[in-house]
Amino acid sequence: MPAKPDATAEEGGDHPLLTAEDLSVLPGLRRRALARIGTRPERSGEAVRAASLTLAAGEALALVGEPGSGNLVLARALAGRRRAAGGTVRHRGRDLATLTGRRRRPLRRAVQTLSLGPEPSLDPAQTVRAAVGRPLSEHRTAPDGEHDDARTALALERAGLPADCLDRPLAELSEQDRRRAELARAIVVEPELLVVEEQPGPHAAGARDEVLARLRGLRESTGLACVLVTGDLAGAGRSCDTVAVMHLGRVVEYGPAERVCAEPLHPCTRALLAEGGDGPPRPPAAAPDRGEGAPGCAFRPRCPAPLGHCGWEPRDLAALLQRRRARLDPARRRAERALIAGADAVGPPGAGRLVLTPGRRSSAEELLAHLRGLREEDSAADPREPLWGGVVTMSRDGDRVVVEFVEAVTPVLAPAGEPGRRVACHLVAGAAD
C-alpha cells in the first residue's frame, strides 16, 4: 500500500479526507413531479443502510457489488451527489448536510467523477482544449482563464497525452486517447477525491486498470483519493488499497484489498470472486428474496451454509414444499398437494409462524407426520436441507398444524480477527443487531 501524504485542509484540520458514519440513503425517485403534488413516488435502485467508512488522502477504496447492491448509490452519497436519509458524511470533518450555497462550491471542485462506459463520452467534435479545460471555467479556478492552458497541458501529461494535441478535435484521437482525455478532464481542477464509476461493458476492465495505474502516481505525490465503483472484485483487489463488498444496500465485508481477495470471509465475497466481474449468481426463481428492511441476512437465500437464525420464514417452507412437489411424479404430486388446503403466515417478517390447514381428506395428524418425515428425510440427505435449522417446533393446534420459526437476527459489520477487517456474517463474527 503506498504511503499517504499528510494532506489537510484549512477548515478540515487533521480529520480524514472523508468519513461516513451509519450512513443511510433512500433509493432514487422515478416520478419526481408526481411526488411534489402528493402522490407516493416509486423508488428505483437499492437503499443503502448504515454504512460506515473512512477514506484517507491518497487511498483507493473499491465499492464492489453486483448491480443493485447499492455501491453506486453509496459512492454518489460520499461525493455529495445524493442526500443522506440518516447518518453523516464528513469531508475533512465538515458535515456535508450543513454545506449549502457558496459553502458547497469548494466541495463540487474537490470531488470529481469519472464514468467509464462502453464508449468514450466526450463530444468528438470538440477540441481537446475545449473538452478537457471546460471544468476550469466552470469552477472559476483563475480570473479570466489565467494559466488555463498550462493546467490543461499538465492534466493531459498526467493522463498520458502530449500537450501538442490541445487543438486537435477529439474525433482524430484513438479510442484509448479519448479515454485518456476523459481522465484529464476529471483531474484538471486538481480534486482531492475522484469517484470512478465503472459501467458494464467489454472494455470497462481495461479502461479501469489504465485509469487507476495513471492515478497511482498522483495518489502518491498529491494525496488524491479514489473511490472505485465496480462489480469486479478481483480487478479491484489488484488496483485498490481497501475493498468494501456490498449486497442489497449493506457493506458485508470490509478490509485491505489484498487480504479480502486472498481469504474472503463472507459467502457473498467468495461468490463475487468465483464469478469474476459478473457478480454472484442470481438466486433460483423459487428462492424468495429478503424483503426490504426485513431482519436476518439478505444473502441467506444464496448462502451455501445458512444458520437457523439467518432469517428463515414461513414462505421459505412453502417454497421448499413447492420445489419438492415439482420433482415428484404426477400421482404423488396430487397426493401431497391434497394434504394441505391452506397456509397462513402469522407474525412479523423474520419472526413468525406458519399455520397449515389440512385438506378435506386428510387430518392434522397426517399433515404433521408428513412434515416430520420430510425433516428427517432432508436431514439425512447430503447436503442437508438447512431450512429445518430455522424451525423451532412443529405441533398440532386443534385441527391445524403450526410451524414456528427461529427469530431472525441481522448480522452487523464486526471485527473479523485481523487488523482493519470487518465482516457481517453469523458464520464468521456472530455479531447481530
UniProtKB/TrEMBL annotation:
Domain ABC transporter: 29-273
Keyword Transport: yes
Pfam families: ABC_tran (PF00005), oligo_HPY (PF08352)
Keywords in alphabetical order: ATP-binding, Nucleotide-binding, Transport
InterPro entries linked: ABC_transp_ATP-bind (IPR050319), ABC_transporter-like_ATP-bd (IPR003439), Oligopep_ABC_C (IPR013563), P-loop_NTPase (IPR027417)
Gene3D superfamilies, A to Z: P-loop containing nucleotide triphosphate hydrolases
PROSITE patterns: ABC_TRANSPORTER_2 (PS50893)
Domain of life: Bacteria
Stated family: Belongs to the ABC transporter superfamily.
Protein name per its UniProtKB record: ABC transporter domain-containing protein
Organism annotation: Streptomyces thermolineatus
